[in-house]
Amino acid sequence: MWEERFSNSQDYVFGTEAAAFLRDNLGWLTPGARTLCVADGEGRNSVFLAECGLDVSSFDLSPTAIGRARDLAEARGVALDANVSVWESWDWAGPQWDLVVAIFVQFTDPQARVGQFEDLKRALRPGGRLMLHGYTPKQVEYGTGGPPDPARMYTSDLLRESFAGWHIERLAEYEKELDEGAGHSGRSALIDLIASKPRI
């Protein structure tokens, strides 16, 4: 589905500017941090992080999207290690990351989401930081992006429970007007989690 969606569009589906979530939380970005952007699409977020001085790798299942991510990185003069991979094939047990960024990755059902969250946890080094951004169930009413299934959305209670024992630095539900390409446009019900993995 995603390859078809990207390849059928002449434009960047979600635009070329980073998600407002990243631009609003610059204080959590550390230059030089080894960073993984998961299911990164056409590179708007990974390229922005590289522009901020982070050492960024990314993956997405769509070859078209990854091609555009590489083009965007080249156009902006930054290095980006962009890879074609499905979620299940990524080496989650491989080198650990200082920062993992997961933005609008709500494509799994609640049962599969448990494993998805475990993958994100495993990818981070002790003390590493997760920046997770998505929609709350109210987003279904707005219909301005994301899946039409409220069960795939996040709530504060869900994230607090899923990352119990982590140091939560930001956990907030809010509404905002988004203008992030045709894919995310209009009033949106959003949620942010920024949390650090326990060192022990």
What's the β-strand tally?
7
Estimated radius of gyration: 16 Å
Helix content: 25-40%
Q: From the helix content, strand content and strand pairing, which structural class follows?
A: alpha/beta
Report the biggest beta sheet as strand number plus sense, adding barrel if it closes. 7 strands, mixed
Strand order of the largest sheet: 3-2-1-4-5-7-6
Terminal CA distance reads 40 Å
Please, how many helices? 7
**Average pLDDT score:** 93
Low-confidence stretches: none
Helix and strand run:
HHEHEHEEHEHHEE
Strand-residue proportion: 25-35%
Shape: globular
Could you characterize what this model shows?
The chain has 200 residues and is an alpha/beta fold. 28% of the residues lie in helices and 30% in strands. The chain has helices spanning 2-7, 20-23, 44-51, 63-76, 110-123, 139-142, 156-162; strands spanning 34-38, 55-60, 81-84, 97-103, 124-135, 167-180, 184-196. The protein has a seven-stranded mixed β-sheet with strand order 3-2-1-4-5-7-6. Strand 6 and strand 7 (184-196) form a beta hairpin. Helix 3 packs parallel to helix 4 (63-76). The termini are far apart. The mean pLDDT is 93.
